[in-house]
Amino acid sequence: MEIEKKYTNGEVTVVWQPSKCIHSTICFKGLPRVFNPRKRPWVALEHGETEAIIEQVKACPSGAISYFMNDEGNQESQEITDTVVEVLENGPLLIYGNLKVKDKDGKETSKSQTTAFCRCGASEHKPYCDGSHVKIAFQG
Questions:
Q1: Which of 12, 43, 88, 129 is least surrounded by Cβ atoms within 10 Å, i.e. has the fewest?
Q2: Which residue intervals define the domain Iron-binding zinc finger CDGSH type in the entry (predicted)?
Q3: Which residues constitute the domain of residue 129?
């Protein structure tokens, strides 16, 4: 069973799935008063404006943090319609959008929002990034 934690300010709920995190540090570099890994709990939505929190969550390259608006009752508020591919400097290949990933045995997995694929070769969860590029000081 995967861990999932939810944090809310009454207007928006941020969902954190630590197993997806690639430790890009984008969340806490952008809003350090809201996302602070040195504190517990590490997410404190009361220290930020809802719109700023949403924009920061959208910047998460792995999809480890996501959000939904509480009044919409719709947990798919981050729906992406176009597929975009981005190469992160010294990091993973990011795919924004809906896609199906077929493994070597032919098993398909549906992915949506943001998917991070390993470029460094060191991930223990290939084809997905697990943050190993930081440990090995990957350049590329």
A1: 88
A2: 90-139
A3: 84-135
**Domain end among 23, 46, 69:** 69
Per-residue pLDDT of the chain (140 residues; tens, 9 = 90+): 678 999 999 999 999 988 888 888 888 888 999 999 999 999 999 999 999 999 899 888 888 898 999 886 544 444 556 788 889 899 999 888 778 888 888 888 877 677 889 999 999 988 989 889 989 999 99
| Whether residue 46 is found in the same domain as residue 101 | no
- Number of folded domains that form the chain: 2
Residues 92 and 61 in one domain: no
Question: Is there a domain that residue 126 lies in?
Answer: yes
Does one domain contain both 62 and 96?
A: no
